[in-house]
């Protein structure tokens, strides 16, 4: 209590901060809610940080590039990409161009067209109080509900359970009657609370072939737990404590091409294991030592929540701290190590972010190797956590400003490094339906940990993914007014908006902190949702489309739109919803499908697209994907769930 008292005395005078010559106050939240909650539990939690505020909050503006406009098409013209004028990030005219990009797949003359707009995106407050701060977030297939959960260790949230039974607090005679897990309808915002018994703090997860969430690990009694959530109106968590051979706290779960799961690392356990089937248990004999996680361990870790991706060749890419390897999951041997990525650490608590870039397939795909690239952005210096968390007064080092890209299917691959418009750590990377990447959330200085970061990075940044070899570029988009710091999260929605939630830099639920525990949920509409581009949005006719497809099979998707469709401007992608936590998006995957045929006017304003499913599970692990039809670079009105099967 004493530390909370002094924290309050220090923070209150600093609620007004100086930003670029203007006084700025982060919006007051949760008015009328008197309850405040601070963690009063085991001292062992101090490993994640603590301490006091020790410096001014300075949130640098990224310049006039963030100036927004409501959109507005004054003209549409076709222009070759090589002749386009820069990024248009400072465009004052509300103009849209149709830009031609030479593609390596597709039909016709092999070109993809995309609408080019000066619209910088827009924000909306979707839910004022989600009940929990979304430390973990995933969109569940078919039911279109976002699963959000925090940790039972706090023993409190912003929502009470609807009735008994309450959770028995381990090792005490107390009960916890608060909600720690919810399902939220992404269209209506309706919330259904779920009960949890085993602590999910800093856990992992992935969707199985049937769309169920299989989550692993957590803290304390949840560290060796496997939990499953099925898809139904009354389904709740099924929890299996003791199912894992090692405790998995800050571990990463990956889905293999045959649908099995592996889970890597976790605090104090430089090992990995295959996740057992429902109801089964691993023993220590099922745990494999992984010396790579010993070698990449700094004095303050910097290798927790490693970035792990299934490559298209069936090997597993693992990045920890500043090193990366390919692991053969069948022989359990490292078959290749890539060059070291310079300029600091990237994993928790340095906490950069990463994604697998779009996998581009051709019609009638027959290539032996399908290129697969990773993108890693931001992070911090190796000693950023030491300075921000362990030193007094705290010192908040600037985060990294670079992004690095690597083809993980090439044994001679090298990192290609470019700079972002601003520094970022604790951020998230959303692979958009078009293949571009939205970098959102996070801070500009400090580290992960309790009260260990400053200068919220309020502006999302668009990383342009292009297939014509002309390179990539960044565009700074319109800012939110809600800081999303440590423990923020996201979900790509069926309407191509982005759900943004979470943020809690405090060991508990605090309303009086510099960055209060955040339970508000926002939606962000990216550039392609410029209202003046709505004419390009197609409608998928689900009842006339195939939504369960075997690998390599040809299948049809029917679309309806306004006027005649130019087949050259079509792009079809499928997206695997990630399990998002701590800046890591487990199993996020976007695949552009090859268009085999395009049948025009099968009915008025209605067309059939014949596609080929991915050839195997290494390209697209079995399960549910959101299928988007993009026209002129603008996603369809609502994606369709499609299931890929062996």
TrEMBL record:
The record's section on InterPro entries has: Gal_Oxase/kelch_b-propeller, Gal_Oxidase_central_sf, Glyoxal_oxidase_N, GO-like_E_set, Ig-like_fold, Ig_E-set
Q: Which residues form the Galactose oxidase-like Early set domain?
A: 545-643
Q: Which residues form the Glyoxal oxidase N-terminal domain?
A: 135-528
Question: Which region is the signal sequence?
Answer: 1-21
Alphabetic keyword roster: Signal
Pfam families the UniProt entry points to: Glyoxal_oxid_N, GO-like_E_set
User: Does the keyword field hold Signal?
Assistant: yes
SUPFAM superfamilies in the cross-refs: E set domains (SSF81296), Galactose oxidase, central domain (SSF50965)
Q: Which Gene3D superfamilies match?
A: Galactose oxidase/kelch, beta-propeller, Immunoglobulins
What is the protein's given name? Galactose oxidase-like Early set domain-containing protein
Which species does the entry assign this protein to?
Gossypium tomentosum (Hawaiian cotton)
* Lineage, highest ranks first: Eukaryota, Viridiplantae, Streptophyta, Embryophyta, Tracheophyta
């Amino acid at each position: 209590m004493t530390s909370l008292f002094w924290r309050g005395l220090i923070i209150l005078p600093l609620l007004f901060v100086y930003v670029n010559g203007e006084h700025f106050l982060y919006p007051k939240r949760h008015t009328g809610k008197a309850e405040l909650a601070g963690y009063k539990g085991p001292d062992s939690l101090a490993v994640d940080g603590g301490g006091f505020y020790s410096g001014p909050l300075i949130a640098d503006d990224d310049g006039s590039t963030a100036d927004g406009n409501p959109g507005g098409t004054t003209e549409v013209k076709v222009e070759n990409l090589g002749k386009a004028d820069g990024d248009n990030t400072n465009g004052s005219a509300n103009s849209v161009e149709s830009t031609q990009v030479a593609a390596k797949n597709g039909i016709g003359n092999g070109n993809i067209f995309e609408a080019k707009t000066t619209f910088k995106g827009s924000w909306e407050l979707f839910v004022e109080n989600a009940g929990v701060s979304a430390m973990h977030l995933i969109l569940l297939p078919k039911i279109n509900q976002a699963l959000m959960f925090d940790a039972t260790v706090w023993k409190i949230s912003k929502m009470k359970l609807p009735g008994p039974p309450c959770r028995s607090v381990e090792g005490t005679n107390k009960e916890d009657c608060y909600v720690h897990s919810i399902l939220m309808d992404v269209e209506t915002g309706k919330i259904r609370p779920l009960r949890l018994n085993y602590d999910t703090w800093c856990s992992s997860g992935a969707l199985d072939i049937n769309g169920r969430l299989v989550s692993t690990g957590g803290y304390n009694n949840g560290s060796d737990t496997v939990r499953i959530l099925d898809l139904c109106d009354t389904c709740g968590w099924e929890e299996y404590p003791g199912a894992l051979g090692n405790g998995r706290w800050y571990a990463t779960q990956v889905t293999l091409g045959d649908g099995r799961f592996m889970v890597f690392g976790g605090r104090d356990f430089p090992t990995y294991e295959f996740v057992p089937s429902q109801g089964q248990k691993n023993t220590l004999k099922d745990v494999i030592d992984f010396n790579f996680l010993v070698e990449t361990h700094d004095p303050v870790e910097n290798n927790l929540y490693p970035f792990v991706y299934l490559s298209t060749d069936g090997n597993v890419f693992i990045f920890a701290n500043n090193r990366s390897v390919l692991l053969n999951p069948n022989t359990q041997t490292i078959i290749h190590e890539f060059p070291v990525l310079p300029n600091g650490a990237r994993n928790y608590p340095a906490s950069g972010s990463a994604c697998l870039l779009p996998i581009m397939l051709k019609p009638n795909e027959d290539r032996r190797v399908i290129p697969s690239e990773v993108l890693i952005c931001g992070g911090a210096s190796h000693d950023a956590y030491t300075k921000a968390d362990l030193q007094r007064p705290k010192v908040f080092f600037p985060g990294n400003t670079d992004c690095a890209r690597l083809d993980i299917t090439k044994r001679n691959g090298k990192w290609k490094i470019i700079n972002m418009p601003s520094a970022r750590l604790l951020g998230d990377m959303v692979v958009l339906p078009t293949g571009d990447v939205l970098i959102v959330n996070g801070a500009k200085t400090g580290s992960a940990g309790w009260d260990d970061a400053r200068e919220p990075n309020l502006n999302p940044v668009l990383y342009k993914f292009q297939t014509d070899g002309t390179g990539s570029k960044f565009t700074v988009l319109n800012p939110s007014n809600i800081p999303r710091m440590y423990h923020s999260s996201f979900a790509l929605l069926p309407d191509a908006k982005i759900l943004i939630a979470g943020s809690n830099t405090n060991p508990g639920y605090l309303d009086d902190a510099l960055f209060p525990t955040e339970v508000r949920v926002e939606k962000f509409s990216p550039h392609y949702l410029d209202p003046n581009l709505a004419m390009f949005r197609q409608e998928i006719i689900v009842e006339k489309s195939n939504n369960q497809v075997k690998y390599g099979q040809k299948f049809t998707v029917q679309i309806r739109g306004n006027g005649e469709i130019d087949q050259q401007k079509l792009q079809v992608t499928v997206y695997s919803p990630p399990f998002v936590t701590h800046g890591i998006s487990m199993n996020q995957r976007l695949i552009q499908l090859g268009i085999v045929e395009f049948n025009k006017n099968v009915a008025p304003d209605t067309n059939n697209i014949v596609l080929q499913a991915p050839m195997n599970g290494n390209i697209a692990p079995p399960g549910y994907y959101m299928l988007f039809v993009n026209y002129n670079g603008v996603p369809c009105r609502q994606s369709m769930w499609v299931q890929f099967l062996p």
